[in-house]
Amino acid sequence: MHDLSRHARQLITVEVQLRQRRELPDLSRHARQLIVAEIQRLQQRELPNLSRHRSSQVKIFQLELHHSAVFQRKHGMAATFMAKPFQGEAGNGMHMHFSITDQNGNNIFDDGSAYGTDSLRHAVAGCLAAMPASTLVFAPHGNSYQRLTPGSHAPTGVSWGYENRTAALRIPAGNPKARRIEHRVACGDINPYLMFSLVLGAALNGIEQKFAPPAPIQGNAYEHDVPRLPTDWATAIEMFRSDPLVAQILPRQLIENYCLTKEQELERLRDIAASDHWKVYLETV
Fold first, then answer.
1. Banded model confidence at residue 53, pLDDT cuts 50, 70, 90
2. Cβ proximity of 99 and 105 under 8 Å
3. Where are the beta strands (DSSP E) in 17-148?
4. Closest CA to 190 of 90, 272, 281, 128
5. Could you tell me the strand order of the sheet in which 169-171 lies?
6. Would you tell me how many other CB atoms lie within 10 Å of the CB of residue 171?
7. CB 124 within 8 A of CB 206
8. Which of 71, 101, 113, 150 has its CA 20 to 30 A from that of 89?
9. Nearest to 139, CA basis, from 240, 278, 58, 256
10. What is the mean pLDDT of residues 84-100?
11. At 32, is the pLDDT very low, low, confident or very high (cuts 50, 70, 90)?
12. 98: β partners
C-alpha cells in the first residue's frame, strides 16, 4: 500500500471532484467504502505488521480527515471520531483485531480447531486482567462514557466469547489460519499509540505469565454477572493511575502525566454546560 498520508490526500481530492460533479450524494456510504478498502489492504499484508506503523496509520487517517474540515463545512457536514456524537444511536468504536506470529511466520493462536491454542487463551486472559484499568485509554474523553452503556452495542463488562459480538473480546469464526482476537472496547476517539501498546502488552503479559481466562460466555454479555468497566471518567483516571498491570506495560511517568492531563480536562469540562459538551469534541478528536 502506498504511504497512507498521500493516499488519504488522494481520497480527499477524489471526494471533492465527485462532489463537484454531483456524483456522490451519500458521503457516509462512500466513507464506509473507503474504510473497507483500507481494511482489505491491511488484511492483505501490504505493509509491515508493526504495531507502531499501524498506530501511525490510524493517527494519520484521523488527522487527514480533520484537515478536510473546510470542505466538509462547505457542504454542511463535519467528520468526527467522537465516541457518541448522537444520543440514541450507535457510537464510534475502534475495534482492534490482532494475532501473533512466531519466528517462522506461523500464527501462534492457530491449532487447526475452532477454539485456538493455549496461547490464545493466555492472551485473552491478559487482556481481560488489564481491561478495567485500561479504560481511560480506551475511553479517553468525557463523551466516551456515553458510548459505554448497556445495550448500546459497546462492551460494558469484562468478558470474552467465541463469535460473540456482545463480549468485550471476540474470537471470530472462520479459517483457523486467521485465528485472532477482536478487542472491542475502545472508542473512536482513542490515541492509537497508547491503545495498541496496552492491548498488545496485556496480551503478551498473559502469554508470558500463562494467565488463565474464565470460561467464555454464551448469549448476551449484558445479562452476565461479570466485572464491569468503570462508568465515569474520574473513576477511570484513578484506576489507571494505580493499577500494577498497567504499570508493567507503560512507563510510570507517562501514566502520571496522562492522568494529570485527563484531570485537567475533566475540571475544565465541568465549567461547560452539559448541552455544549459536544462542541468541545466535535472536531478536536
1. low
2. no
3. 96-98
4. 281
5. 96-98, 181-183, 169-171, 160-162
6. 23
7. yes
8. 71
9. 240
10. 83
11. very low
12. 181
